[in-house]
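Sequence and fold
=================
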Amino acid sequence: MAKNYWLEILAVVAILGFCAVFLYTSSTMKDAVFAGSDNVGSNQIAELTGKPVESFTPLVPQWEPPSGEIEACLFAFQAAVGGIIVGGVFGYWLGQKKSLTEAKSN
């Protein structure tokens, strides 16, 4: 039985491992603050070059949405489109596998 569900078992083990590491880390680091990788990287570059963070400009100009609500809407739209694409690919693969097994059995 475990042979049929090895991927699910692996996913549950990975989730439990992540939760254990998260709980251990959060219990041992009381004053930790999540700064985000963008802030940390920008601050590190500014420290190494001696220029303030505000003086850096991106190589490709980026459009900034007019409000946070529009940014959240665009992010949700991007996540939905990605989910539809991933679901479509997995559905196609499962359909192909099912049609191959039915063709072999007939």
Remarks:
- The two ends are 26 Å apart (CA to CA).
- Residues 1-62 form one domain.
